[in-house]
Amino acid sequence: METLFKILLLGMVLVLTFVPNSVFGVLFPLVIVLTLLFLYGYWYMTYFVRLEDIYKVKPELKDKIKFNIFCGKLPIDNSNDIIRIQMVITEKEILFFQRKKSRDRTPDSSCKEIMKIDLDSINGIEFKKVAGARYGFVLFFDETQEVKFMSSRIKKKKKELCEALKLNE
Q1: What is the pLDDT of residue 79?
Q2: By the 8 A CB rule, do 136 and 79 touch?
Q3: Tens digit of pLDDT for each residue in 3-28?
Q4: Residues 101-120: what's their mean pLDDT?
Q5: Is 161's pLDDT higher than 80?
Q6: Spelled out in words, what is the top-level CATH class assigned to the domain 51-165?
Q7: Which of 95, 88, 99 is nearest to 43 (CA)?
Q8: 20 to 30 Å CA-CA from 23: which of 4, 58, 138, 150?
């Protein structure tokens, strides 16, 4: 399915780029909207992790999740790409889930746990621009260790995140 989306998306971008606007006439805006919808569908199938997927992998989390948000984890050494994850906070820990590659997915497990952090190890949080103009937050563990996350939705959820982490804003 992902491959089909890639091919359709590539074809639509090629059509938008090389076919003159006069050929489409009034349908040109519709083709642009359709291309954007295919782009969103590809992103959703490739990166997004739903809570239902997490419950299939870890059913014990069903009633224990205090907060969750889809965000991007920035690499510490700035050498790799952003890791798109679903951050889940429970009473004692933070769990990070990432969508598996299409060849590794099964109906029972389409995501995997990639990292776990104990809540007691977190000393602070700061909300700021973490990568250029991208807004997010930074979790501090001690004076030298920090982990940066990007999320455009975190501005609206600052209070809930701080309450789940048992920290002050």
Answers
A1: 67
A2: no
A3: 888 888 888 888 888 888 777 778 88
A4: 87
A5: yes
A6: mainly beta
A7: 99
A8: 4
First to last CA, the chain: 42
What does DSSP assign to residue 12? H
Q: Per-domain residue ranges for the chain?
A: 2-47, 51-165
Distance CA 57, CA 51 (A): 10
- Alpha-helical segments (H) within the chain: 2-18, 21-24, 28-47, 51-57, 158-165
Let me know: does 115 contact 78? Beta carbons within 8 Å. no
Helices (H) and strands (E) in the chain, counts: 5, 7
Q: Report how far residue 60's alpha carbon sits from residue 115's, in angstroms, rounded to the nearest whole number.
A: 17
Distances (CA, A) of 37 to 23, 85, 98, 148: 21, 22, 23, 29
